[in-house]
Structures are given as structure tokens and as C-alpha cells.
Amino acid sequence: MGSKFTRKDIIILTIIMLVYSVIAFVNLGDSIAPETFWENESGEQITLELDEITYIDRINIYNGRLSADEKNHTVEVLVDDEVTSTVNFALGSVFCWESIDIKAAANKLLLKTNGYIGEIVIYSEDGELIEIRSVTDYNGDSIPEIFDEQNAAVYQPSFKNGTYFDEIYHARTAYEYINGIEAYEWTHPPLGKLIISIGISIFGMNPFGWRIMGTLAGIMMLPIMYVMAKTLFKKTAYAAFACVLFSFDFMHFAQTRIATIDVYATFFIMLMYLFMYKFYEENYNVTGIKKVLKYLAFAGVCFGLGAASKWTSVYAGAGLAVIFAIYMVKRFTEYRRYNPKNYIKNTIKTLLWCVLFFVIIPIGIYILSYLPYAFIEQGGFTFENIWRIQENMFKYHSGLSATHPFSSQWYEWPLMTKPIWYHVTRLPDERIMTISAFGNPAIWWVGIPAAAVTAYYAMTDKKNKWLPFLVLIGYASQYLPWALIGRVVFIYHYFPSVPFVVLMITYAVKRLYERAKNKKNVIAGVGVYLAIVIALFVMFYPAISGVETDQSYVKNVLTWFDGWYIGG
Fold it and tell me: For the chain, what is the mean pLDDT?
């Protein structure tokens, strides 16, 4: 059948994408949030007045960016000139709701606060919204920005209506790019945050707006995976198998629904390897050089886009270089044996074009990703400033000595000894909404022997050793460099390796099927295996999606090991 796409491929891929898309968009986040902000630079007192004396249960405050001096956001609430609550919101409390218990009757509240406030809402004991008559600053001037979007009021703050984990950096910086504000987060290149800003520009500065682009990238990873598997293994069955596996991996699901930049790095890594696999299929000694250069150009552009999203994408360059070297050795071997026409000319052209595709164009893309700095007061869009940022980025990452309770070592990732816990909202009656990122055990753990099988055949299969080697290169180039990294790292850094884990499992199944005497038994076994993969996804869905569930279910059913803290 070959790697050519058929109607059957289109139907199967469409069904998988539709099913996954529905699951991915459910509970993604609210599409409304306060978007007008007021900054209290001096930290002076503001006054909230109600129509009458009312028992106030709580105040919810929607924080925007931090104050100009980037200090913790402190709120002190006074009722009848007496302090009832003092709350220090941490630096991470940006673009999210925070609750302050009041438990007092009043018709006027005094707040001493600093930082950006998007909205203040007041709730009664029964959870009803209390109307605010006016909000004035210390000069008696009205502050309409603080109570003009009461329709966005939220009683229970959660991930659905605010930022969580590294969204506090990346979603915030995307917003700052849009508004020409000095960028808070500069420790990664800008492209991933620029992609996030597209969703914000279209849907607004709300959870849906800052997560939509990552979710779409997660959906579009599915056809990339399908085509990669079809290109390598030539059959629709293997392509569908790989695509289903990737669709129901926990990491793929959780990591593409949070507004961080890792999803874009992984997306472009998958694309660059897809085009490199396509390049490997072509032979300029037979078909000429045009197709070869086309795929190399696409791979080079994706390499540049990946590097401009996150530096870890550069690791993929080593794997691309190895595949390219294998290709050139094969062409040279043909030249030695058959002396094909135009070999020398095609080889020189390919090498020269590669300088453009993998050096000049990626550098150009990387530099252009800093174009937002032309519109913010942060050094400007100059070579000197861009170089200075790169130096600071390197110093930051190489000198980072921070620790984190959910960090883990690179060799622990395939074993999933420590998932990363992103968020929890604790609700009444021991109900919770929790989000963690780790792998589907039926994929990640099976990937370990699959990697051994792939490596074995890469060393011993004389007939077609390059097929397993191509898969193994992608995995090794994304995974092994982490053995050299001394700074704090997390299991989500394994995400770019997961597509290749899926391909290694697919290759192992292919070998098993080809060697089996009773192929029906293999097909039945594969069906059972896929059912287990999907069943585990359904089982763990409450722990990776944030859907409301019983805390006891997470603690007693989903927490398989002591090192797994996923919200229970």
C-alpha cells in the first residue's frame, strides 16, 4: 500500500481527531474574564459602598498583572475601621480570582491594596452576588474598572477561570506582547508566547483564549503522528494504531490544555522529523533534487520555529543531522556501485542548500521572533539587545539552583515515579478538581521494552536496520541530552520524546505481527491492548482534566504509588 494517503486513511484520521477534539475542549476553561484593570501604585485605601448593611461572606478579587515593583499583592480589608482580613497573594497570583473571607455585616468596606485589580465581587452567605453601589479611591474619585464586569463574577476560583502553574508566566507575557508592555518572562524565546497571544487576540484575555492555541496544536499533532507512522511503516493499520495511542496519552492531553510553551516545541519537533522522514524516502539519484530540497526546506523551517519556541527543540537538530548523514552515506554508496548521473552535482547542491535551510533560515526565524521588542520599552528590536537576552537566558538556565517538590530526574520519567501536580481546587463534601501531568502507564511502561526491541533490531536487522534506527534517533535526540542537564527538571520535559515512544511501540507491534505464525492472535492482542490504553485514559481522566470528582477516588483508586501525589 505504501505511504500514500487513501480515502480510508482520511476517514480513520477524521474520526480519531473528532473524538479527541470533543474530549480536549470539554472543561478547557471559561471564555469570559475581567479585562479592564486599575492599578493602585501607591497602595492607598479604596472604598466599596453597598446600598445597605448586608452580611458579607467573602470578597473575590480578580488580579491582573503584578504591581510595577513586582512585589506580592497585599490586601487588607477593614470593616468599621477595624481590620477583618489581611491576605498576601503570592507573585503567581496573576489573571486569576482570589477569595478573602469577611464574615461580617457592613454597608462599607475599606481595602488597602497594591497591584492591578480587574474586578471585585462580594458574596452573601448563601452565595448570592451582592450589588456594589460605588468604588472610590483615596481621593474620592470613582474607579469603574473595579466593578464594571460583574457578569464575569466567580464564586469558586479554579483553573477554569484563572491561570495555573506556568500560565502565570507564559499567558501573562503573551498579554504583554499584545499590549506593548515590558515582557515579564524572557527565559525562553518569544514564539510560543506569540502563538498563545493569537488566541488571546481572538477570544480575549480569558482561560479559553490563552489555552485554545495549545489545544489546537494538540489536535493537529494527531495527523502529524498518523502521517509519520504511515511514512515509516507503510500501512494504514500501523498509522491508526500509533494515532490512537498518542490520542489517549495522559501527557499529550494535559500538556496541550495548559498555556505553556512546551506544546509548541513538541509540535514543531514532530513536524521537523516528519519532513526529515519524508526526505529520507526520496533519492536524488533517481527522482532528482526538487523533492529532496522541498522536504529539507520544510524540516529546516520547523527547526527554526521549534528553536524560537524553546531551546530544547535544538536537541532535535542532532537527530536530524544523523538522519541526513545516513542519507548521504547511502547516496554515496550508490555512487560507488552504480555511478548515477548527476550525483556530484546533486550532492553539492543539497549540501549548499542545507546551509540555508538549517542555519540561515532558522537564525532568521529566531531573530524575527523577538519582533515584539520593537514595541516595548525593553531594549528594542536590536541585535545587541537580542544577544544580551540570549546571554541572560543561558546564565539563568545554567545557573538555576532552585528546587521543586515535583521535580524528578530524567531516568525516572519513563517509569513515572513522580507525576507533576499542576492544580487542585478543593470543594465541599470532599470533592476536588485536580490536574496532573504524567503518562498513560500502558504506553510509557510498554515503551521501555519497545525501546529495547527497537534498539535490538537497529543493531541486528541486516535487511532493514535503518527503519528502527530512524525511530530510535528521534527518541534518543530528545531524551538523552537531559542526562547532561544539572538544573531542576520535570516529567513534562519528557513530552517531546513521547511521539517516538509511540512509534517504538508501533514498530515492536509490527515486528511481532510479521514474525507471528497466528496473526489473528496478534490482532486480538493489539485490540485488547488498545482497550486497556483507552480504559486507563477514562479511569484517570478526572486526575488529568480537572473535572470534578471525589477526593477519595483520586487517593484510593488512582494513586498507585507513594510518589504519586495527584491531588488526593
Answer: 92
